[in-house]
Design brief:
Layout lengths: L1 H10 L10 H4 L12 E10 L6 H20 L4 H14 L19 E7 L5 E7 L5 H12 L13 E3 H10 L7 H4 L2 H17 L4 H18 L7 E7 L4 E7 L20 E4 L8 E8 L1 H7 L1 H8 L5 H14 L12 E10 L12 E9 L3 E8 L6 E6 L11 E9 L5
Parallel strand pairs: 3-4
Antiparallel strand pairs: 1-5, 1-11, 2-3, 2-6, 5-6, 7-8, 8-9, 9-10, 10-13, 11-12
Helix pairs in contact: 3-4, 4-5, 11-12
Length: about 425
């Protein structure tokens, strides 16, 4: 642990934080009475993003940010904006969520997704869901239905549904079905066939050759940029200061049918919580990586709690190292793989001219132990989104080292 901390100190100088003043970036022609505020941060998975596909990954993150900002500018709440971002990410054939998801051992697509509203603290999730193009829409509908209160005869509405039950509930609530074969892409099908051949071959050879082959396969996955990509997600704050978070995933390639990853588990895939008497900041988190590692550490909720301290960057760094890489719950793992995006915000102390225009101070961070993580971010006052593929420093070992970056954005114009 001592060695990891020292390495992190060397690789992550105190000047890492890129400051973005949202008000300074607002186009001059913007009307000064504009009330729309908000901010979105998205990710297209923590894993390995090849340089050859960097343009596509950045493009889908940019589109996801734009969709969320369109909602924010129309006055939609954070939950609607974060859902819009996730639909865009799920619809891309380059992400492992919704369309183009990994196929399981049986050659089928089973998706996980969840969403959390920081204002109501309500949560909706689906696991191992087949036949629905946008699983986040089902999770979002579960959340909204729960807000309506109890069902007939005093029944408690569900917040987490799986498999066929989730599918029938979705169709019954007006979400159109989509056959799994329509959700597969040429890329996901070819990956499935290639992985299937590798498994069949591995089961026939001696154990010493299996070990050699595993190392070779790992190298091949790094080269083709496909094997490690996992969950996509987003975090949003709206003009009222409410936060929301969402996450969606096709799961691990060649997973066992019925396996449910962190994207559907409470406190593991996403977390959102408005500020209250105990918490001075509103926080929203979305995770990615190896689902089993994220589940056993409940990383989303851990990160949310950690950034309530004054120094969000240092707190997130400590959490990623002490409660993830070096977690006692993952002591048997040689390679701990995961990534997070984190948003925290609070109202500025400046005297506002109007409660509706009171500025928001937003801090946004991302951190990962994987080779790379693709992110995008945008405020409702920006003309376009910024995108970035974060990579581990040269010489760093994936699963044992981490990268952390981020920025600060001031939203609103309290000087009017």
């Amino acid at each position: 642990m001592e060695k990891i901390i020292q390495e992190a100190d060397v690789r992550l100088p105190s000047t890492f934080l890129r400051i973005s003043d949202g008000s300074a970036e607002t186009p001059k022609e913007q009307p000064r009475d504009r009330k729309a505020m908000g901010f979105v941060l998205v990710h297209a998975g923590a894993g390995y993003h090849s340089e050859s596909k960097a343009k596509e990954y950045k493009h889908v993150c940019k589109k996801a940010c734009q969709r969320a900002v369109e909602k924010l500018n129309a006055g939609a709440p954070a939950v609607e904006a974060v859902t819009a971002a996730l639909v865009e990410l799920e619809d891309s054939p380059f992400t492992n969520a919704g369309m183009g998801s990994n196929l399981n051992l049986s050659g089928e697509i089973e998706c996980d997704a969840s969403i959390m509203d920081g204002k109501s603290l309500q949560y909706g999730a689906v696991g191992a869901l087949s036949g629905i193009k946008n699983p986040v829409l089902v999770a979002s509908r579960l959340l909204s239905e729960a807000l309506k209160g109890k069902l007939s005869a005093g029944r408690v509405p569900p917040c987490f549904l799986v498999g066929r039950g989730a599918y029938h509930w979705a169709v019954g609530h007006g979400i159109p079905p989509c056959p799994s074969d329509k959700m597969a892409t040429k890329f996901s099908l070819s990956a499935y066939k290639r992985n299937r051949r590798k498994i069949e071959l591995a089961e026939k050879v001696e154990s010493d050759y299996v070990q050699v082959k595993k190392r070779r396969q790992s190298s091949e996955n790094q080269e083709n940029g496909s094997g490690s990509l996992d969950t996509v997600g987003a975090v949003v704050v709206d003009q009222e200061g409410n936060v929301a978070a969402a996450v969606s995933s096709g799961g691990l390639a060649m997973k066992h049918p019925g396996r449910v990853g962190q994207a559907a588990h409470y406190g593991c895939g996403c977390w959102a919580e408005n500020a209250c008497n105990l918490n001075p900041y509103s926080t929203a988190v979305s995770t990615s990586g190896c689902g089993e590692h994220l589940i056993r550490t409940m990383l989303a909720r851990e990160c949310s709690a950690s950034v309530q301290s004054e120094d969000a960057h240092q707190s997130l760094l400590d959490t990623m190292q002490n409660k993830f890489i070096s977690s006692p719950f993952l002591a048997s793992e040689d390679c701990v793989l995961g990534g997070v995006i984190v948003l925290r915000c609070c109202r500025c102390a400046d005297p506002p001219s109007s409660p509706d225009l009171r500025a928001l101070l937003v801090e946004f961070l991302w951190s990962h132990t994987t080779e790379s993580m693709c992110v995008g971010y945008m405020s409702a006052q920006d003309g376009k989104a910024k995108t970035h593929i974060s990579r581990l420093p040269p010489g760093a070992v994936a699963g044992q080292s981490l990268a952390i970056e981020g920025g600060v954005c001031r939203l609103g114009n309290p000087m009017d």
